[in-house]
Amino acid sequence: MAIADHLEELKKTAKQMVVPGKGILAADESSGTIEKKFAKIGVASTEDNRRSYRGLFFTTPGFEEFISGVILFDETLRQSAADGRTFVSILQGVGVLPGIKVDQGTKEMDGSPNEKVTKGLEGLPERLKEYVELGAKFAKWRAVITIGDVLPTDANIRQNAKDLAAYAALCQEAGLVPIVEPEVLMDGGHGIEACADASERTLRAVFEELKKAGVAPEGMILKTNMVIPGKESGTKAAPETIAELTTTLFERVLPDELPGQAFLSGGQSEVEATENLNAMNKKGQFPWKLSFSYGRALQDSALKTWGGKPENIPAAQKAFYHRAKMNSLATLGKYTSEIEKA
Which residue intervals of 254-306 are DSSP H helices? Predict the structure, then answer.
């Protein structure tokens, strides 16, 4: 079907994903990523452990007050909880939208091995059709942009932008809201200006390619990085500086029709990710909502509290609920360190 046939439904879903006071939980770690997370707490990455871990988030009492949607991994979309209910039906039952990660990871770019391109376009229309049948309402595709001495190259930015646009068009044709995720990585010793430059080049290319591919901006969500110094730079920027540079860039590049931008945390600590989001929303109203789509910054405390032990699930859920509530306040510009400690 043509994108226009789905547009009203896409617009409605996209607005629901970034409604003020709510954000998106990224629970779509690949098998390799979740294995590394579990290894850090001494837990084996078995199907039962993954089910138990992910299920603790989806069954947290009241989490739907702060979470509009959850990005799932293929395995999780098909899984059921211990009581036999599918995870999709558990989410639907509390009004939370199920989504699905559809990219298949990254590979080295031909001619520029220090840069990455994303795999997964082959066979994507058939996979999207199945995901719709399984209950997914939105999808996600991540592209990564690396900053280095002569990086990112224009060729890498353009290839990733074209692939994101091709994915987004296929999603909208299938009736799924695409989360378009170009991530300028925090890895490296670069300063905040280098991040600002790479982020602007990337977003300009992405929106040029989305337009060429006929993607309706009002039926998609952007998920990108904050403008922030590299992790190895030895510098920290104040939330107000990050907010100023990021929102100024967005005002130059993002179309007004875009319903919202849900930030990735990208290696920030849980509290940093909340403080920086709050600083942006304290600046006032923008044409698009500024929300969150965090993985680690929503899960870290819960993961450590859980530790693979069923008896720790209530305490882990409490940690997750707190983090979700803090980020909910940040989408409204109402987060404070006093509320955090309380």
Answer: 270-282, 296-306
Q: How far apart are CA 342 and CA 294, in angstroms?
A: 22
HSE-CB for 94 with a 13 A CA cutoff:
19
Burial 184-211 (b: 16+ CB within 10 A, else e): bbbebebebebbbbbbbbbbebbbebbe
Could you tell me the pTM of the whole model? Answer: 0.98
Give the β-pairing of 289-294 and 260-263: parallel
Distances (CA, A) of 322 to 6, 62, 133, 294, 329: 36, 11, 33, 14, 11
Return d(Cα 126, Cα 134) in angstroms, integer: 13
Model confidence pLDDT, tens digit, residues 158-192: 999 999 999 999 999 999 999 999 999 999 999 99
φ/ψ bin of 108: left (φ > 0), alpha (ψ from -120 to 50), beta (otherwise): beta
Backbone angles phi, psi at 236, to 5 degrees: -125, 135
Instruction: Identify the bridge partners of residue 26 per DSSP, sorted by sequence position.
Output: 71
Of 214, 113, 227, 109, nearest in space to 171 by CA? 214
The catalytic residue positions are 181, 223
Would you state the structure tokens that stand for residue 38, as one six-digit string?
């579990």
Q: How far, rounded to the nearest angstrom, does the alpha carbon of residue 83 sit from its chain's CA centroid?
A: 29
All domains of the chain in start order, with CATH: 3-341 (3.20.20.70)
